[in-house]
Q: What sequence folds into this?
């Protein structure tokens, strides 16, 4: 029977009974391994719970306002300044979004309007499907899928060839989506080399480029682990999307979108009921609470705090890899600078795990091309709720099945 909208409100006790926390949240020996979600940072939960009741609407963008802002808006502005500094440009614009998808749509929307027409979008087969959604929404039909290398990064030689091929049929504007932390492998595109190639191509052929960086996974990982330059340090990077509800340990729904100063003007629309204000965001009404939660947790942790969490997670990941390899259970792909691994299990039925293991550890297998072959892999995210003991249980379960 389908649930009906009740004529008369239900008894409160009955409602509460239905809402008792289910066992998808608490479980004895199962561990959530397959997705980048975790128990949020307790301070994030506390802040969110505190601010949600005031129901403050953060409609608009605050980084381009010089006037006195109310307290939560001021904090959001500071948050974007902090993130801008971390990513190589303190002077960026941006706002707190609902997640990585919104940031990717924003970036590609701005890029498409910035170039006006005749654009081609460049990505790889590993690029997140939110970029496909953006192409569909923007009616971008010229799309190139660049092959990836054996290290699961965009192949730069092929990028050059493909751009020149399109250029020869009259396309002069390219949106390049670079991923810092692919969802399936955790690997990163080499933005530095790509940026350098684009610079050469612009010099030689006057081709125009816009790089959007999808850093949903890696935006709160790589800047704390690696010393190399990031995102806005590179000329052609105009926008970036980050996901605090993944490696930022903030409750859903929290994302951050940032772009070069003033770029949001390419998508702005007047607000009919507020004459002097322009709307420059994808979502209109949004909660102040996520912005304040990000501000609070990021300031509490600092760069050192993030680094410490990641070092511990990466150590646990190395432990898992060592066990898997020692017992010859799997072949592993992993960037040393991340807390995630992509695993191909050897000795199983085409690389597939038995259903009960998939279920217990919330794992989903997928096909990925590796050395000219399609193989089944699983991704594992080592997040703060994962313990050494839970990984030992996982290994034991694997040993018992193979
Ligand atoms: C998760 C993810 C997204 C989408 O983010 P949502 O927060 O789910 O909207 C985009 N890109 C990458 C690489 C991701 O991993």
A:
């Amino acid at each position: 029977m389908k649930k009906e909208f009740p004529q008369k409100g239900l008894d409160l006790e009955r409602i509460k009974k239905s809402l008792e926390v289910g066992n998808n949240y608490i479980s004895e020996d199962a561990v959530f391994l397959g997705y980048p979600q975790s128990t949020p940072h307790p301070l994030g939960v506390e802040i969110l719970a505190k601010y949600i009741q005031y129901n403050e609407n953060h409609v608009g963008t605050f980084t381009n306002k010089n006037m006195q802002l109310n307290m939560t808006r001021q904090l959001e502005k500071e948050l974007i300044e902090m993130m801008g500094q971390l990513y190589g440009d303190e002077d960026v614009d941006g706002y707190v979004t609902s997640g990585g998808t919104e940031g990717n749509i924003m970036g590609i929307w701005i890029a498409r309007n910035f170039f006006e027409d005749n654009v081609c979008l460049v990505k790889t087969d590993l690029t997140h499907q939110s970029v496909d959604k953006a192409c569909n929404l923007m009616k971008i039909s010229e799309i190139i899928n660049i092959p990836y290398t054996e290290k699961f990064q965009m192949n730069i030689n092929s990028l050059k060839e493909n751009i020149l091929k399109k250029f020869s049929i009259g396309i002069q504007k390219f949106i390049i989506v670079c991923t810092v932390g692919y969802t399936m492998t955790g690997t990163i595109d080499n933005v530095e080399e790509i940026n350098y190639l684009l610079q050469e191509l612009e010099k030689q052929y006057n081709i125009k480029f816009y790089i959007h960086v999808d850093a949903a996974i890696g935006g709160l990982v790589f800047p704390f682990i690696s010393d190399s330059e990031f995102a806005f340090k590179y000329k052609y990077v105009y926008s970036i999307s980050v996901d605090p509800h993944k490696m930022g340990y903030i409750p859903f729904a929290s994302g951050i979108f940032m772009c070069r100063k003033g770029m949001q003007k390419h998508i702005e629309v007047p607000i009919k009921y507020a004459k002097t204000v322009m709307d420059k965001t994808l979502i209109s009404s949004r909660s102040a609470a996520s912005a304040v939660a990000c501000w609070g947790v990021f300031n509490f942790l600092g760069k050192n705090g993030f680094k410490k969490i990641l070092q511990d997670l990466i150590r646990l990941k190395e432990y898992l890899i060592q066990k898997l390899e020692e017992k010859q259970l799997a072949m592993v792909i992993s960037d040393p600078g991340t807390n995630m691994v992509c695993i191909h299990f050897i000795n199983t039925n085409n690389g597939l795990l038995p259903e009960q293991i998939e279920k217990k550890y919330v794992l989903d297998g997928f096909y990925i091309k590796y050395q000219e072959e399609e193989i089944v892999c699983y991704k594992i995210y080592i997040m703060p709720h994962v313990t050494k003991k839970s990984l030992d249980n996982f290994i034991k379960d694997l040993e018992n099945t193979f």
